[in-house]
Amino acid sequence: MKSTLDKFDILIKGGRIIDGTGSPSFKADIAINGEYIFQIGALNVENPEHVIDATNHVIAPGFIDVHTHDDRLLLSNPEVTPKLSQGVTTVVVGNCGASLSPWTSNFPPPPPLDLIIPMENNSYRFPTFSSYAIALENKPASVNSLSLIGHSTLRCGAVKDLERPASVQEIKKMKQLLRESLISGAGGFSTGLFYKPNKPAPPSEVEALASELKAFKAVYSTHMRNEADKLLDSLDETFETAKLAGCPVVISHHKCQGKDNWGKSKVSLKRIENAHKHQQISFDVYPYVAGSTVLLEEMISQSYKIIVTWSKSVPEAKGRELTDIANEWDVSLEEAMRNLQPGGGIYFSMKDEDVERILSHPLAMIGSDGIPHDEHPHPRLWGTFPRVLGYYTREKKLFDLETAVHKMTGIPSKNFNLHKRGTLKDGSFADIVIFDPDTIRDCASFENPTETSDGVNTVIVNGTIAWSNGTGTGSRTGHLLKNEFCNKN
Ligand code: ZN
Questions:
Q1: What pLDDT, on a 0 to 100 scale, did the predictor assign at position 303?
Q2: What is the pLDDT of residues 199-254, one digit of tens each?
Q3: Which residue from 35, 54, 232, 320 lies 20 to 30 Å from 476 (Cα-Cα)?
Q4: Helix locations, 346-420, DSSP H
Q5: Which pLDDT tens digit goes with each residue over 52-89?
Q6: Residue 100 CA, ligand 1 centroid: distance in Å
Q7: What's the gap in Å between 4 CA and the centre of ligand 1?
Q8: Model-level pTM?
Q9: How far is the CA of 221 from the centre of ligand 1 (A)?
């Protein structure tokens, strides 16, 4: 017996629902009213204003990209096309210790902050998180966002000499900046302990800051000190810091970097599992064997390829292999890199077996780690989610579609405390993606990194159609999401 509704804004009919909880899919219709899902079931509506035929398609919660550097992109390209086109409806920004706000320094941003904060002009400078939040609320993006506050960003504003640990006074100042940000709604705190501006911070400095999170039920995310030879030590440091600070922790882009460390994911995942018995731990991963960041000499290796993503001093180097450039110049790889600085690179430093093992783990969430302002970016920026659904789910059969969607929706929503998002049920926010499970695939490659994916039919953000038949609708209905404390107050 079909129920009839008389009032609704959008009806999605005939699709297969994967609700984000990991449960098996089922056939049903979805009615949307305003920003919310009104009802899920066998529905019939007279005079439908907007009916979307989802026959042979999957209807899933909009994907949550838990690891992004989209802080500035939300303002500079509010359509957020690289993400929206993949079915992403929420991005977590400010990862790896680098957030756009609160930026209180007068100096040019050191790497890797130059990936998101423009170096030359003084635009996109937000001395407080609330000034960033206001900018975003005045000029909303097409997708929702949750902001982490980066430790490197805080250190640049508060620590006189970035090459040493912060003093008691400096820690006090950073804690105050972080607390103000959390009061204004920031969703957590991130570190990039691998990077120069953050590396000199000892665990005690991180813990002092992370201890601010508890009262806000906010999250600590970490690009750990080491993802190569000292991967396991870094995991132990992460568990200990989060335990002492009393906050949940997300290990960023979990990987085993460099040939000598391939295969270590067997051990690292066991360690995470063991720690997970005693504290709240999760991790994100992107579906590629290559990573990407700024140009770093310590990441040069004879055992893998490096592609230049941008170079300030030699702009025409973008998209080229470092070895080719070094040969052409008749210099060492190190010297070639020095001549290209500042710049970015793609490092083919991982092994497929590790990537697959990490992706398959039940605690794994999908995070793109896309770098949106690179001139020749890593394809993960445009391809991550369709690649997991197409290549890793349909073709390699690493897991079923319900599990894949769960890693992109239900698990992230739980770990980041996203209220009424990440699963499809009556009364949830209508963040929805409709895709064809037989054709969805990533088209962005290392050669052509900004190709739009195939198979994503419709994306709905807070009840409004934001992407339809291969193009953005120009809607700007994304919300700035806030931590649980702010939602209650
Ligand atoms: Zn990172």
A1: 87
A2: 999 999 999 999 999 999 999 999 999 999 999 999 999 999 999 999 999 999 99
A3: 54
A4: 352-360, 380-387, 401-408, 410-415
A5: 999 999 999 999 999 999 999 999 999 999 999 999 99
A6: 15
A7: 49
A8: 0.96
A9: 10
Dihedral (CA of 449, 96, 270, 256) sign: positive
- Sequence-separated (6 or more) residues with CB below 8 Å from residue 270: none
* Ligand 1: centre distance to CA 69 (Å): 9
Closest CA to 68 of 141, 135, 128: 141
CA of 139 to the centre of ligand 1 (A): 27
Residue 304 CB burial class (10 angstroms; 0-12, 13-18, ≥19): middle
- What digits encode the pLDDT tens for the residues 384-437? 999 999 999 999 999 999 999 999 999 999 999 999 999 999 999 999 999 999
* Dihedral class, residue 422 (left if φ above 0, else alpha if ψ from -120 to 50, else beta): left
CA 95 / ligand 1 centre spacing (Å): 7
Q: Which secondary-structure segment (H or E) carries 81?
A: helix 81-84
Q: What is the 3-state secondary structure (H, E, C) of 403-436?
A: HHHHHHCHHHHHHCCCCCCCCCCCCCECCEEEEC
Tokens of residue 88, six digits: 């992403």
- Amino acid in the structure at residue 200: P
Q: Which of 349, 382, 385 is nearest to 366 (CA)?
A: 385
Q: What DSSP element (H or E) covers 265?
A: helix 265-276
Query: 369 CA to middle of ligand 1, Å?
Result: 7
Token pair in block for residue 32: 């949307």
